[in-house]
Design brief:
By secondary structure, chain A is of the alpha/beta class. Helices cover 30% and strands 15% of the residues of chain A. Chain A is globular, with a radius of gyration of 22 Å. In chain B, 39% of the residues lie in helices and 22% in strands. The N and C termini of chain B lie far apart (66 Å). Strand 2 of chain A pairs parallel with strand 10 of chain B, so a sheet runs across the interface.
Chain lengths: 299, 386
């Protein structure tokens, strides 16, 4: 064998700086949508003015949970379902940081569902990105809180009897200040949504509809990655500002995408600081007429 | 709103309140918790005190979230703490494991009540001793302290923070309902007389920082979020870079580090007191509230001419094996009073390895062990034919 010439230096990709290149190749399957969501996140971080030292990524467990291990920032791969409370503690002790939670639908909304609704209720200043691939991919394709009624998974071999969650409606109902849903083919809109979510004060939520051909597509006879992605894209309609409750994911009719919520609301720390400055005198602010109820006298 | 973190002076407060003051004196500035009897008073006082010293208190949706939040808070750079009792401690063990694996300093105060399950919420127990040692899955070492009075709730909470910062792990305070709810004199010294240890920070250039490379005493220096080290922290088995390594070699290297930083520093971690042990024929080995019963028993028995001494374990995990082994060769019997049906006594038996008799004085929970039971056990042990 002749000695090989040393390979020409590869031009650096603009996003390489944000990648732990020493951890590549990644574990994601070919055709997986997580890489697209990851790319959009990196593009949004590249556009963001916040210094890199002040951006932190927290994930839970699962395929998307591995994202934290590939990003070259302070990054935390926590326990299953607990990324949001971990991120809450981090945010409360270091409020100057932008804390981004990136995880899957099972992690954030099944095992982590209680944390999700309470963080949204408190309006903790977090950006939560949920990659929804309609199943548990890491463990080989089981029923998730997002699995459509009737879809097959390894634990619903005859089709899922469950009604799935509408994550965007849930986030909005719990008080999220920003809620958007895009598919992995809406790349520019998705990147914009992540940017807007990062800039938003309060609990912001971006759902990414992503293909999982290996585990989900295969069991539902949509084996080719592009076919699955096209199914999501073709059935999707863009309806910005639609009431989140009407923003359904219905593969027989419409998969609604868009930006559904973009509001202002005081964050948890805004209110924490306000009450601890003593700016609230009493609750209820309008007072109570104690005489009306008749005061009990000592007999 | 400015207030003092160290309330120097003499106070008449309960153990839960003393725990708070110890935490604040040790530098705790973040608390995430969830109400539970008999630990609620810790959270209540923290909710009032932390904003006074520029800290943050948050009541989370459950104990799982509380434990996760204090890990995040610790990486954010704040000394962090939660408090709970048995049912909450069971829920926290998942993320205590994450804290052990990721070497995250923080403190968990478990004010033990009688169990299993909901058990006796308002009454004392010491049934979580083995849970604190083995309750989270996998392979690891832990540190746990056991206060026996409100004063020790103050002192040992500082100790717990110092140990957690020095050895980078969640440290459990294994208190109990009686110690937590008992009101006693608590003396808080001047701030400059309180030794406070802070985590060691990396000094190497960012390019060459290995987040899990053992430093002094086998403990890796810890960067906080925002220091610019861009560390990756994972509950997966990881190498010194912090990167996952899915193989037996990485697992062996990581678990050895978790073990060695504790077992290699026993001289800095172990803490026990002895009373009238030099000529003792029977040694009472006790911890927490049961150590107070034991102290009373030893003093009373000595008046009756019974040669009995006390070993009071201030640090219960790691267990002081070498000392107990040597003691077991000198005494006829060792007695362990504990408010469970036999947990730490198993350690005593294991380490004594038949060199002396080992007797359990048990209470299933709901009350304390009275000194007369310990005296009776000592008498019985001395009457046993060898």
């Amino acid at each position: 064998m002749s000695a090989k010439a040393s390979p020409a230096p590869q031009p650096a990709h603009p996003q390489d700086e944000l990648l732990r290149t020493d951890r590549i190749p990644h574990i994601w399957c070919s055709g997986c949508g997580i890489g697209i969501a990851f790319g959009s996140l990196m593009a949004a971080i590249n556009k963001c003015d916040t210094p890199r030292d002040d951006i932190t990524v927290v994930s839970g467990i699962g395929c998307t949970g591995r994202l934290a291990g590939y990003i070259h920032l302070d990054s935390f791969h926590t326990t299953h379902g607990r990324a949001i409370p971990f991120a809450t503690g981090l945010h409360l002790t270091r409020p100057q940081n932008k804390v981004i939670v990136a995880s899957g639908d099972g992690d954030l909304l099944a095992i982590g569902g209680n944390h999700f609704i309470h963080a949204a209720r408190r309006n903790v200043d977090l950006t939560v990105i949920c990659v929804n691939n309609f199943n548990y991919g890491m463990t080989g394709g089981q029923l998730a809180p997002s699995t459509p009624f009737g879809a097959k998974t390894t634990t619903t071999p005859k089709g899922s009897p469950d009604e799935p969650f509408n994550f965007c409606a849930l986030a909005a109902a719990c008080g999220a200040t920003y809620v958007a849903r895009w598919t992995a083919l809406h790349i520019r809109r998705l990147t914009t949504a992540i940017s807007e979510a990062m800039d938003k004060r309060g609990f912001s939520f971006v759902e990414v509809i992503a293909p999982c051909p290996t585990a989900f597509g295969r069991r539902n006879k949509i084996r080719r990655p592009l076919d699955l992605l096209k199914l999501y894209y073709d059935r999707s309609v863009v309806k910005n500002h639609l009431a989140p409750g009407e923003a359904t994911i219905d593969f027989d009719h419409k998969l609604v995408t868009g930006k559904f919520v973009d509001i202002e609301r005081p964050t948890y720390l805004d209110q924490y600081d306000m009450v601890n400055r003593g700016e609230l005198e009493a609750w209820p602010a309008t007072g109570v007429d104690a005489s009306a109820s008749g005061q009990r006298k000592a007999g | 709103m400015a207030g003092k973190a160290v309330l120097t002076g003499t106070h008449f407060i309960n153990g839960d309140e003393a725990c708070c003051e110890g935490a604040l004196a040790a530098g705790c500035r973040f608390f995430a918790g969830y109400p539970i009897t008999p630990a609620t008073e810790v959270a209540e006082r923290m909710s009032r005190r932390l904003p006074q010293v520029g800290g943050v208190f948050v009541q989370m949706e459950d104990e799982i979230a509380s434990m996760a939040a204090i890990l995040g808070g610790s990486w954010g750079g704040a000394k962090s703490m939660t408090s709970t009792s048995g049912p909450g401690y069971s829920l926290m063990l998942e993320n205590i494991g994450l804290g052990l694996c990721t070497e995250t300093p923080c403190v968990v105060c478990n004010v033990q009540r009688a169990g299993p399950s909901t058990g006796l919420p308002t009454l004392v127990g010491q049934g979580d001793m083995m849970q604190a040692r083995w309750g989270s899955h996998g392979v690891y070492e832990v540190i746990a302290v056991a206060p026996a009075s409100p004063q020790e709730m103050f002192d040992f909470t500082i100790k717990a923070f110092n140990l957690s910062e020095e050895f980078r792990l969640p440290v459990t305070i294994l208190a109990d309902e009686v110690v937590g709810h008992m009101n006693e004199r608590v003396v808080i010294p001047p701030a400059n007389e309180i030794a406070v240890i802070d985590r060691l920070k990396p000094t190497v250039p960012k390019e060459s920082y290995l987040p899990y490379q053992p430093g002094p005493h086998g403990v890796a220096p810890m960067a906080n979020v925002g220091d610019g080290y861009y560390m990756h922290v994972t509950g997966l088995t990881h190498d010194e870079r912090g990167y996952p390594g899915m193989d037996a070699a990485t697992q062996e290297q990581m678990t050895a580090r978790l073990r060695d930083k504790i077992l290699g520093n026993l001289d800095r971690i172990l803490d026990f007191e002895t009373v009238m042990l030099d000529d003792a024929e029977v040694a009472v080995v006790a911890y927490g509230i049961s150590a107070r019963s034991a102290r009373g028993a030893v003093l009373a028995a000595r008046e009756q001419g019974i040669k009995v001494g006390l070993v009071k374990l201030n640090v219960v995990w790691p267990f002081p094996e070498q000392f107990i082994r040597e003691l077991s060769a000198k005494v006829k019997a060792m007695i362990m009073p504990e408010i469970n049906l036999g947990q730490m006594v198993l350690e005593l038996e294991r380490v004594a390895a038949g060199r002396c008799a080992v007797e359990l004085v048990a209470h299933p929970g709901g009350g304390i062990i009275t000194p007369d039971r310990i005296i009776a056990a000592a008498q019985a042990a001395l009457e046993e034919k060898p």
